[in-house]
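S., here's the first fold you wanted:
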Amino acid sequence: MGILAFIGLGLYNLRDLSLGALSFLKEADHVFLESYTSAVPNLSIEELRKIAGKEIKCINRKVLESEGGELLLRLAKKGKVALLTPGNPFVATTHIALRLEALKRGIKVVDYPAPSVIDAIVTSTGLQVYKFGRTVTLTYPEAKYGYFPQTPYYVIKENLSRGLHTLLLLDIRAEEGRYMTASEGARLLLELEERIGEGLIDEETLAVAVARATAPDQQLLAAPLAQIIDTDFGPPPHSLVIPGRLHPMEVEALVVLCNADREVVEGWRQKLERRLRSI
């Protein structure tokens, strides 16, 4: 029986690869790398090849989504196959689907998880993990098709109504070389308000921009959306958080870790408390 291993690369270069993952890579017959679900800052594929002692084959979205990972499944029926992914493999639903299909075909599956974007956001911002609500992705609109997804707006609304933080993952289209920035995401939120008009978001809405979370050159800023829009956060990946009800320790974390103005954070906290009392 063959084996299909899902190996998380984590958040920065090869820093987060586990010992178990490294051991499997050295034994694997085939090693594949996908990088369309996120970006790993400073990732050296050449260094990865040296560690694994074999060729690393880069695959695109088509191989895993349109083709259902048939190439990997076929090889894993009779050998050891490793799929390397950014972060934690199972934050992406594509990888969950492939995992289930492998098991249905009698292929043994082994998992080597690594830190995910969710771990990174909690680590970098100091916001408390149990106070996050539903996570949602901000995707690029497609004006020519009349495509302007509104789900993120309503997810933020629902989370804020419960006093919960919202993690906004930002669209990545690696094949096109497009990685949504925190500034673009902030601008998109204001455009959503213009379209929907429920008074949920404005230029003074507090947001936390996180660029290259946990990397040595990570950049953090908790500020009104208007300031986020005007800030250059450097290379991807980026994320945004719209904070919900803030514990005093979280307020302190935003000031100390995320370069926030204390008065701005307190102003947002009071505004949200008034909103919650009116619901």
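And the second, which I think is the more interesting of the pair:
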Amino acid sequence: MKSLLFLLDSGRRASPFDITMAYDAGFDIVIPYENVTARDAKLLVQDAMFSRSPKAFKNTCFFISGRDINRAKEILKVVQDAMFPPYETSVIMDPSGAYTTAVAMVAKVEDALSTGNLGKLSEKKCAVFGTGPVGVTVAEILTSLGCKVIIAEPNPMLSWEYLLKHEAVRGLIERHGAYIEGAFAPRRTEKRRIVQESDIVFCAAARGVQVIEEEILRAIKPVKILVDINAVPPLGIEGVEIKDDMREILPGIYGIGALVVGDIKYKLQKEVLRQARENETSRIYDFNYMLELARQMFQGKKKAIII
């Protein structure tokens, strides 16, 4: 029986990265659908369900993507509601790769803190620059771990009032108001204040845009960890190179670069896809599951998780 992956993307173009990863993880056929709405998702899932026996349906999986995280969540709910025993199978939730990327950033920092005896992540104040899918997801994970978080938008073409109309950002602040603060930080003075007040800085802003200049880093106190996922010059944080793995870029300031995060994301996504293809038990692969899996991968445990 062929293993099938239906990629349900709410955007206008399915990701070649996700399609390639699915084939590399062993799926026989990957079928992308684009501009998918919640209504479309229900019909697609039910058509896929009834084309196979309940046992054979386990060889069918769904992958939900798209840059709009809230729409992806709506599609996930519809997909879950459309299935019923014995027609149940696994669903992967990774909108625009935001979940695997965000988890890779957070899990790498957790491991770096543990390895360097620098305390627990939950004890740290964190800053997240960028309010796109990755930035919002990083902030969501950090607040769920009990961190105090500030999520900042550095794009001078936007405004905080505009961002509050963005459902993902507004929802994040409404859900975690006690743990999260929002800020509009296009100017160097605001960026310096945010970086100075934070222990860990996650840069998830647009590609090819430098958010934090070295001048800001030279004006702050150590000890800090800076994580940048921008691999397109100029990099997001000046001084953090793409291959940095806790390199001390300035006294007491350590950098983690895009290729280090990217390698973790790649391995994590491939493992999630492999598990979804091979496991007979239906499961929702969201960022909570992915974080536990990433932690086990850092500990050298790559076997399936039983929850």
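Why I say that: The domain at 4-96+266-298 is CATH 3.40.50.10280 (Rossmann fold). Residues 258-278 form the longest helix (21 residues).

Talk tomorrow,
H.
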